[in-house]
Amino acid sequence: MAVAPRPHRGVREVSLGGPSAAFEVEYVVEMPESSGSYTFGPAQARTLAAIEWADVSDTSTEVLVVGGDL
Q1: What is the pLDDT of residues 10-55, one digit of tens each?
Q2: Taking Cα atoms as reference points, which of 16, 23, 61, 13 lies closest to residue 41?
Q3: Are 38 and 32 in contact (CB under 8 A)?
Q4: Where in the chain are the domains?
Q5: Which residues contact 23 (CB under 8 A, 6 or more apart)?
Q6: Which residues contact 29 (CB under 8 A, 6 or more apart)?
Q7: Which 3 state secondary structure label does DSSP give 30?
Q8: Cα Rg, the chain, nearest whole Å
Q9: What is the C-alpha to C-alpha distance for residues 12 and 25, in angstroms, rounded to an integer?
Q10: What is the sign, positive or negative, of the torsion defined by CA atoms of 12, 58, 22, 24?
Q11: Residues with Cβ < 8 Å from 58, sequence gap 6 or more?
Q12: The model's pTM
């Protein structure tokens, strides 16, 4: 597995290695410092040969940050 930071795009790309029909992964996101409602996701995936990224189902969530800007 390799991680490629892309701060100018606001993302990180993670390479999971060789071909597989399925992967099980866990990920951690940094919470914003300001209070508010935020949506995280969806995660996206693509093969090395693909041009477009595809959304991964069930990888989005909404969160409410309270007091982050204190």
Answers
A1: 666 777 766 777 777 777 777 788 889 998 888 888 777 888 888 8
A2: 61
A3: yes
A4: 38-70
A5: 16
A6: 40
A7: coil
A8: 15
A9: 15
A10: positive
A11: none
A12: 0.55
